[in-house]
Q: What sequence folds into this?
């Protein structure tokens, strides 16, 4: 008799799981139906800033696969359908058809919870004024694109994380005066230590993006639409405000159904993406993942993790046996031609996890120093004192800098020491690095400190 | 009593060794004197094509450190001094001062042989005509720069290796009609399998560099100076000819002194860069190095290896204890905006070494497919059948492609399998890769074939 898989949430984790399950089980064996609250499935949220910047057009370019394409592969997808309740005992979900405004119940044998994350919404007066936006959904991206297109003015970005900086770049590229306001003492402070964060800030300011640190937004002012953003001691004129205050796991449904949450506030899963409930799976921004360095659960909202964990869930739902190997939180971005990346633990997190650490820093150039396109590159290698084991790394610099982080990710993945990485046979030609890549030099510095 | 280190050869391996020995032993403890046949020490041969192309100027930009700079650090360097004999019994070398044209003997306690490599010189009629060049020394680079500058004409590059292609690019960029003639069935065939070699050829032709395969140069024609290059069945007009037929280890001196050569024809050393003779060391292009995948000695002429092995020798001469960890032969180049890299074993070499192999190939884009600067990228992962252990990788593609090879180098360094690499937490943002990097997809394909 055929089984039924219900997928809640139609983006990376959910649709990866659906696709993998379908590859392994025929339509006769497994019916697959996915419900998605928004109008879109399987889209690249990470690409949205580049639509806002006018680099990626049309918006549909960000959609990897449409509901029709899923249908042709035997996966039924319903957009504008919100699952509003999970009943684990009776094994059904209640779905709200948002267009028809009606509710119905539908049963499942297997349930994939991929509800993702929701933006953190500050309680600020004026938050609902016209001209105040988030950048999360494709609809948000379309709105911001229209605004950016209408021509330059003042844009205030609230929040100094990845989405904040990428949106700041998008408006900057279209001639807007951009101010980034953050409560933090630096930018990207969930991934970079403050020292490299300062380098990023210097670079943002050098291209004309103003950065205001340690400043909390108190109110957003305007009558019909936004006119300014008020912080303690200063008010910033604003024709558009983008709130980029990060996100938290969307776990209301799961929690109401009695599905266990972990210490991070996200859904607890094992290394097969199983929750504690038979036939109930979860992956992506709403679920925990094991950090390979600490061995502890984390909840990091990255498309890479959602795709991988969703794939694992789908293979297992499909009858295979896949194990999610854990995460390092590797992340990367750029602002104009300045690149930023990090992997593993930040120094503070490592200390909090009980590691005694050293940081091997090196500054040099992206290419051989004599090449005309050489630009500055800084790498910081975090290693454990005594053993030299690499725990994390951060990179900031010009074009060609940031993807070097993958070497550190691979090194940490393998439990490599800084002293070993310092001799690894990496590629060299003058357009690509010095004869000793700055990776080597940073690792060597870390090893020297770690073994001193 | 003070000891004396004599270094034969003043480029990467020799001067790395000298520098490291000096860091560890004072001038009172160790006198260091280096003899270099040419006019230059410590220069970047790899940077020469970019001087020819006019990108790096002046020529001196390619010199990392001058004899005067070495002198100020207590390292005596004599250029235009050729060591012509090593006497191991009496522990001295005979030096020919090329400027004064006189010979003298000088003693050593420690001897570092870093004689490097010499170009393979074909026996071809007309080889000594004016306008026929190699690109090995800085003087060669200066000559070719002057010729390239004199304005466009026909350039014929003989040889399809790295130096050949980089020189072809240099002349192409300055408006010359460039033809690359090689006896091989592909280009870069010491590092790329023929399939990706064909991709490179397609790219060269698309930018207007003609590639003639399987064609042996029979003669170089001209009266005062070169006029054409004659191959079987076809003659190519030539205002300049660059011979890039590879290089062989420069071991004449060592051999004459009775220092053992290995199966590759280069000097046999242990993992501390010691020859079989007490106090006699060697490193760089003239010495063997252990390949980490096969465990067998190889002789690969790369600045990366020379620098690392020279450093190891110098640390050990200085009283430290460094072990050379072996090589993968990681190499990289570019021709205009097309990038090429490889690491580990080629398919043919792996088979010759007794491996049963599979190749997981993947073609995609350098960035997310929807980004405006997305360009094609192909990665081939070579893995061992049955285990999935990664043995090698090759990459060709647009900007941002080739440095990905460092991930494979790090993976192979750690004995990683393709199935493990396929899940590694690599960095993703749309300007840098797809959400699954093509590394993942290529590794996944290799794993599937290896474990089938």
A:
């Amino acid at each position: 008799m055929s089984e039924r898989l219900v997928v809640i949430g139609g983006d990376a984790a959910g649709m990866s799981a659906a696709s993998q399950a379908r590859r392994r089980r025929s339509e006769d064996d497994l019916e697959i139906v996915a419900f998605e609250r928004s109008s879109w499935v399987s889209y690249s949220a990470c690409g949205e800033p580049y639509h806002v910047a006018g680099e990626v057009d049309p918006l549909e370019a960000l959609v990897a696969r449409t509901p029709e394409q899923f249908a042709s592969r035997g996966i039924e997808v319903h957009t504008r359908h919100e699952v509003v309740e999970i009943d684990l005992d009776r094994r059904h979900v209640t779905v709200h058809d948002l267009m028809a405004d009606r509710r119905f119940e539908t049963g499942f044998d297997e349930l994939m919870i991929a509800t993702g994350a929701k933006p953190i919404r500050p309680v600020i007066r004026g938050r609902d004024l016209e001209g105040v936006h988030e950048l999360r959904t494709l609809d948000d991206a379309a709105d911001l694109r229209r605004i950016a297109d209408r021509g330059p003015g003042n844009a205030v970005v609230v929040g100094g994380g990845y989405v904040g900086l990428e949106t700041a770049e998008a408006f900057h590229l279209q001639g807007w005066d951009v101010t980034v306001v953050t409560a933090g003492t630096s930018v990207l402070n969930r991934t970079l230590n403050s020292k490299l964060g300062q380098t990023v800030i210097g670079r943002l300011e050098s291209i004309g993006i103003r950065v205001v640190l340690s400043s909390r937004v108190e109110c957003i002012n305007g009558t019909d639409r936004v006119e300014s953003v008020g912080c303690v001691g200063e008010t910033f004129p604003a024709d558009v405000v983008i709130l980029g205050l990060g996100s938290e796991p969307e776990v209301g449904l799961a929690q109401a159904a009695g599905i266990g949450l972990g210490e991070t506030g996200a859904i607890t899963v094992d290394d097969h993406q199983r929750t504690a409930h038979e036939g109930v799976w979860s992956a992506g921004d709403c679920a925990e993942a094991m950090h390979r360095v600490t061995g502890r659960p984390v909840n990091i909202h990255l498309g890479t993790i959602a795709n991988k964990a969703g794939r694992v869930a789908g293979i297992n739902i499909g009858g295979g046996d896949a194990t999610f190997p854990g995460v390092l939180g590797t992340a990367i971005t750029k602002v104009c031609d300045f690149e930023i990346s990090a992997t593993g633990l930040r120094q503070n997190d490592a200390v909090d996890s009980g590691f005694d650490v050293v940081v091997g820093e090196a500054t040099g150039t992206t290419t051989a120093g004599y090449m005309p396109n050489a630009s500055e590159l800084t790498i910081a290698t975090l290693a454990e004192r005594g053993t030299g084991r690499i725990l994390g790394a951060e990179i900031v610099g010009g074009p060609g800098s940031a993807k070097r982080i993958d070497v550190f990710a691979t090194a940490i993945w393998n439990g490599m020491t800084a002293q070993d990485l310092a001799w690894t046979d990496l590629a060299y030609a003058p357009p690509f690095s010095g004869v000793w890549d700055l990776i080597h030099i940073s690792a060597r510095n870390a090893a020297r400190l770690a073994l001193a």
Observations:
- Chain B touches chain A through 64 residues (CB under 8 Å).
- DSSP finds twelve helices and 25 strands in chain B.
- Chain B has a mean pLDDT of 96.
